[in-house]
Amino acid sequence: MAAEVEDRAKKVFGDHYDKAVAFTALLTEHGVERGLIGPREVDRLWERHILNSAVVAELLPQGARVVDVGSGAGLPGIPLAIARPDLDLTLLEPMARRVAWLTECVEALDLDVTVVRGRAEEPPVRDQLSDSDVVTARAVAPLERLTRWCLPLLRPGGRLVALKGESAAEELERDAEAVRRAGGIRPRVTTCGGEVLELPTTVVLVERDEQASRREGARRRRKVR
After folding, report:
1. Which residues are involved in binding S-adenosyl-L-methionine (predicted)?
2. 210 labelled ligand-binding
């Protein structure tokens, strides 16, 4: 690791820097063979993946209940858990082999993190993980689908934090009506990590409308009856 990147990583992870190094080493050694990252990503793990994920921590309230949807290789969930051990964090992933990977990483790094196998749109998952403060997602789906899947996991006023690329503003404009129908309000694009990344992380933020939350709760109660 270049000295410049090391300095930036220490700034982001602080006292937990060694765990970030250990997680990066695990991805470097096993990520390609286990289908978690592409071969070209190994040499740019820190800048493009680890730090890109961890800087999103600046958007998360202290002690927030966070669900990382479609966690996959553990991005952004594991870097967030390392940088912010105060978070009550759940990694949600549908694929068994990736759930196994996430479980191994959590145990190896001694993280206080829950790993759940499932999809955000499944009723049992919604029952288990509803009323979360924040849902994160990185390279999971377009906003139209992402808000439909993820917003029901949030408490009223909770926030979806979707890590996106440079075309985030175009995607938000394209899917604005679908976001509104899903119960999303105040959608906007922001960036994170400008002080430590050459290319800051682009994020779409969407809050869950309180009225939509009440309608969802009413539907659940009717089903129970």
Report:
1. 70, 75, 120-121, 138
2. no
Give CA–CA dist 155/28, Å, rounded.
36
Is 75 annotated to bind a ligand? Reply is yes
Walk me through the domains of the chain, giving residue ranges and CATH numbers: 3-224 (3.40.50.150)
**The dihedral formed by the CA atoms of 70, 71, 73 and 78, expressed in degrees to the nearest 10:** 170
**Amino acid (1-letter code) at residue 4:** E
Q: Is 70 annotated as a binding residue?
A: yes
Give me the chain's average pLDDT, please: 93
Q: Looking at residues 106-116, what average pLDDT do you find?
A: 98
In the chain, alpha helices (H): 3-13, 17-30, 45, 51-54, 77-83, 96-109, 123-129, 143-150, 168-181, 210-224
> Could you tell me if 154 and 184 are in contact, meaning their C-beta atoms sit under 8 angstroms apart?
no
DSSP symbol at 55: G
Amino acid identity of 171?
A: E
Q: What is the pLDDT of residues 55-100, one digit of tens each?
A: 999 999 999 999 999 999 999 999 999 999 999 999 999 999 999 9
121 is in an annotated binding site: yes
CB 206 within 8 A of CB 159: yes
Averaged over 140-160, what is the pLDDT?
96
* Percentage of residues in the chain having pLDDT higher than 70: 93
